[in-house]
Specification:
Largest interface: A-C, 73 and 76 residues
CATH topology of the largest domain in chain A: UDP N-Acetylglucosamine Acyltransferase, domain 1
Oligomer: homotrimer
Number of domains of chain A: 3
Number of strands of chain A: 40
Strand order of the largest sheet of chain A: 8-11-14-17-20-25-28-31-34-37-39
Largest sheet of chain A: 11 strands, parallel
Chain lengths: ~350, ~350, ~350
């Protein structure tokens, strides 16, 4: 698959500088690009790489146009333009329409003509697979689950019964959508399972990382709105709602019934407690623990960065004596007759 | 599937108020319930929802009986009673007895007549599948593994060789039971794999969440006792033992050879080091790190809750100077002739 | 499978004390070993177990030779010697050569004669499976992926397209190698997917735990060098490089483009930010957050150990007031005319 530079610029609605007839067949880094390859430049730190690149073209911001020694596509947001060009040059491989002979499709499942069902995949009773959907090898689509147009379900994914998935959704390998939420009622020392009869709804353009789990609701649904992107090994508990266009990095977890706003950016290894409300446009930095609702947009943190173990042991010991130190400090303040405001 | 209110009350051994002939077909929330639906009420905060509910019946504590505007089932523990009613109204779908034609069952495996083996599931040599067991699509049951009566193994689960699973156990999709523990012997800069020849034993009524991993023992077994409930994406290392009726929330991890007591409640994102002993009836709050044995029942914590990033940066900087501050503080105490007790 | 003690000692190049003709068929703990079993002793704390063992033989350090009441193999590193003996006595079960009839192998895939392909496994177009490789049930090997000699891929593993795996590699169940990295370009409130066109290369003798994920690179490859051992549920993001013979314990995560040196030891629940460089021979203790590059070998930490929740609440409250306390402290220093150095 190759495009001329002029075609790429036109698709991006971007200004072109140089040879529009130049054929581009793939993307590469500034350092390693060669003939027929396009790269992008966003970080001033690497300007020397721009100056010496052998790419056939580079996507650059207008501020760096004059520094680009080769053909250029000039755009306000080179990273997003790069993403779109890379999608044109490197789409997912086309899948054959129809089902592999080894796929097991229930007689009452509905599979669109242009869908592709991989080897040993299982489509259970009543499931509906939309046009252009690609189901990977060994994936399982549960009873009455619905997969919207052009979604791509990779190998070994599990979509449980009744889950509803939007259009252009991507589920990476090992993701589990719609397993039971963790509902246990305590009764005289024993735990009684609370059936999880809600579902899961994923909006359009959602992407779910490898081995990420999104549980079904206890009574009502767990909801992931349009354009949400979840990285790998994230845990979304029952009845969570994640607002549109929120992104979350790997290994973060959200406990039950928490509502997260739209356009949030949640870093990795974050833990968010249950029954909270997080406003729109909230940023949470890595390894932060959220235990209260957040009502205002902004950035929130609680992770502690590393020291050498020897230094940390001293700090850790001091931290453990902080209550004692605070009391002794108050004693001194009293002695010196300093009034606390 | 529907029951009369009188039947439900009888099963719960509970007092009924109102129309015992009322037919109940499903559960719902107080807010959304309608004709033929039953709900429950436990949280005084939502009393207005109780007062205005359109449910056909509500499960309530005796204290709120008079507030319930509709038929009522009156019990000391409405949440547990709700769980039992929901199990009656919403059991897992019945699975057909026998094996799907695409399932691969080794000739010397034993599958009970009332068991159900899903499409493309694989039952390996010598495995024993008990009465009423349901094995999901694409699941793998290893050599000589044993699955007890009425257990339910969901899609894409892996049960490794020789694992022994009790009765009424639930394994959610993507769970891996009995993979090798992480045994590596250091030898002059290289790591030599230590074969993991122990097994895994899960007791009765254990529930294991999606993508949770329970490793096999190094020499002897990893043991999960009766009634333990593990949420999603939990890691249980080799030779851990978890006592009966302990629950653990998502993404927590327990390192090798640690013994956890019974009736513990361990929140999410907790990390427990290896070779420890945790007493019975211990509660551990979210994101806590346990590095020493816990000998007494009670609640334990070390997670830090979030601040705005600006505030946290100041606190973090102060924390990093705590050793310095403590020394200067001691200097002042000396100067003021305050004797430390 | 059984060996004489003399044969074991010869293989280990170790000194033998006692009856070389003694037949050994399995390993066991000092406490539980009996006739025909071999154990090992490394920890002085358990000396009473050595003194009373009924093992047929024990692997011991020269310092404890005289304490061993039974046949002994005497070596400088009993744990590594034990690992090698256990590998001899308890190798993975031999797998039949050839493919199970239910396995789906693309016509243009290459499968070596001595390889074994499990039931319902899928080998996609152009994949190359080396001599002695064992592919577990329901595993998926993507297009043009290459699996080196004697590697073992367990059930339900996903190896994505173009991934290159070395020799003697072990991938435990549920591992996902080569899913898309988390690349999203921000554009006016929306996230545009950045295609992930790099690959993943795993060196020789790499071991990857159950449900661990290693993402493919954005443009260039993610690389795991020879002898790296990753425990379960680890997340390795795109373009990470992990140096040879580094080990990492369960649930740790490494963000994108970070390079970790060789011979590092990274404990569990550690989070390492992106775009960092970690030197060789670095140790990181449990639950530590790494946000800056580490240029020197040594041990690093930031995890906080648990207190009772009551004590922790006091410490936590004090920590939250640390900025205030520091300011009041500076005020006193001023008042007392103590000059800060």
């Amino acid at each position: 698959m190759s495009w001329t530079l002029a075609q790429l610029a036109e698709r991006l609605n971007a200004q072109l500088k140089g040879d529009g007839e130049c054929e581009i067949h793939s993307v590469a880094t500034l350092q390693n690009a060669g003939q027929g390859q396009i790269s992008f430049f966003t970080n001033g730190k690497y300007k020397s790489q721009l100056l010496t690149t052998r790419a056939s073209a580079v996507i650059v911001h207008p501020d760096f146009e004059s520094d680009c020694p080769v053909n250029a596509i000039i755009v306000a947001n080179p990273h997003a333009a790069y993403a779109r060009v890379a999608q044109m040059l490197h789409p997912y491989p086309r899948a054959d329409h129809g089902a592999h002979p080894s796929a097991q499709i229930a007689p009452d499942a509905t599979v669109a003509k242009t869908a592709s069902i991989g080897a040993n995949a299982v489509i259970d009773s009543g499931a509906q697979i939309g046009e252009g959907v690609v189901i990977g090898a060994n994936a399982y689509i549960g009873k009455n689950a619905r997969i919207g147009t052009d979604s791509r379900i990779f190998a070994n994914v599990t979509v449980c019964d009744d889950v509803v998935i939007g259009e252009r959704v991507i589920l990476h390998p090992g993701a589990v959508i719609g397993a039971d939420g963790f509902g246990q009622a305590y009764d005289k020392g024993l735990w009684v399972k609370v059936p999880q009869i809600g579902g899961v709804r994923l909006g359009n353009d959602v992407e779910i990382g490898a081995n990420t789990t999104v549980d079904r609701g206890a009574i009502e649904d767990t909801v992931i709105e349009d354009g949400v992107k979840l990285d790998n090994q994230i845990q979304i508990a029952h009845n969570v709602r994640i607002g549109a266009h929120t992104v979350m990095a790997a290994t973060s977890a959200v406990a039950g019934s928490t509502t997260i706003g739209s356009h949030c950016m949640i870093a990795g290894a974050v833990a968010i407690a249950g029954h909270l409300t997080i406003a729109d446009n909230v940023t949470i930095t890595g390894m932060t623990m959220i235990t209260k609702s957040i009502t205002e947009a902004g950035s929130y943190s609680s992770g502690i960065s590393a020291e050498t173990t020897a230094v940390w042991h001293r700090l850790h010991a001091r931290l453990k004596k902080l209550d004692d130190m605070a009391k002794r400090f108050q004693h001194i303040e009293k002695k010196l007759k300093i009034t606390e405001e």
